[in-house]
From TrEMBL:
<keyword id="KW-0812">Transmembrane</keyword>
<feature type="signal peptide">
    <location>
        <begin position="1"/>
        <end position="21"/>
    </location>
</feature>
<dbReference type="InterPro" id="IPR018499">
    <property type="entry name" value="Tetraspanin/Peripherin"/>
</dbReference>
<keyword id="KW-0732">Signal</keyword>
<dbReference type="GO" id="GO:0005886">
    <property type="term" value="C:plasma membrane"/>
</dbReference>
<comment type="similarity">
    <text>Belongs to the tetraspanin (TM4SF) family.</text>
</comment>
<dbReference type="InterPro" id="IPR000301">
    <property type="entry name" value="Tetraspanin_animals"/>
</dbReference>
<feature type="transmembrane region" description="Helical">
    <location>
        <begin position="37"/>
        <end position="59"/>
    </location>
</feature>
<dbReference type="InterPro" id="IPR008952">
    <property type="entry name" value="Tetraspanin_EC2_sf"/>
</dbReference>
<feature type="transmembrane region" description="Helical">
    <location>
        <begin position="66"/>
        <end position="89"/>
    </location>
</feature>
<feature type="transmembrane region" description="Helical">
    <location>
        <begin position="168"/>
        <end position="194"/>
    </location>
</feature>
<keyword id="KW-0472">Membrane</keyword>
<protein>
    <recommendedName>
        <fullName>Tetraspanin</fullName>
    </recommendedName>
</protein>
<dbReference type="Pfam" id="PF00335">
    <property type="entry name" value="Tetraspanin"/>
</dbReference>
<keyword id="KW-1133">Transmembrane helix</keyword>
Length: 201
């Protein structure tokens, strides 16, 4: 249950907190990345629910509930491994998608540097702490925060941020997978202990 709550909290923090929340404030946002976060939150909710039923099975000494708990943990473990593999395989695609979104906004600003697109590109610069996508000459006239390093390339910053977030997801995933393995081991030990006790009686 605690692991499930941790996954929910982590997914919501990535979605609504920090830099990634700023990406979501505009219609042009990396949809596949956010879909992955929603799946992560859903998996956390499922883990919490499964943990609750596991507690009920242990309290009632029900082999059926504990067996179902083991089966659910096995499915969750397989899903975690699959999601982790896809996350690292799809990292390059996620980076390219996010960079293309910024390039589209940049091009829109260059064509018409007024209105909503001005606010949007400024929002990205503020979130990424960067300015533009090229050399100093290309950054001239762009709406950038005062404390931003002008030489910082936004395309590079996007890659760095996604790399860092995926590493966090990987670390959390490994920790949760380890907890899931221990849960499966202990559930089977408990199930066997309950069966042996009933056989003795």
């Amino acid at each position: 249950q605690l692991a499930g709550l941790a996954v929910i909290a982590f997914g919501l923090w990535l979605r609504f907190g920090g830099v990634m929340a700023d990406f979501a404030s505009d219609k042009k946002s990396p949809e596949y990345f956010f879909m992955g976060l929603y799946v992560l939150v859903g998996a956390g909710a499922l883990m919490t629910t499964v943990g609750f039923f596991g507690c009920c099975g242990a309290a009632r000494e029900s082999q059926c509930l504990i067996g179902a708990f083991f089966a659910c943990l096995l499915v969750i473990f397989a899903a975690e491994i699959t999601a982790g593999v896809f996350a690292f395989i799809g990292k390059k695609v996620a980076i390219q998608e996010a960079q293309k979104i910024y390039e589209d906004i940049y091009d829109d600003y260059m064509k018409n540097p007024v209105g909503k697109v001005n606010s949007t590109i400024y929002h990205y610069h503020l979130a990424l702490q960067c300015c533009g996508k090229g050399n100093m000459e290309q950054q001239t006239g762009l709406p950038c925060p005062e404390n931003t390093q002008k030489a910082s390339n936004c395309l590079v910053e996007i890659q760095n941020i996604i790399d860092a977030n995926l590493h966090l997801v990987g670390i959390v995933g490994i920790a949760i997978a380890g907890t899931t393995i221990f849960g499966m081991i202990f559930s089977m030990v408990l199930c066997c202990a309950i069966r042996n006790t009933r056989d003795m009686i």
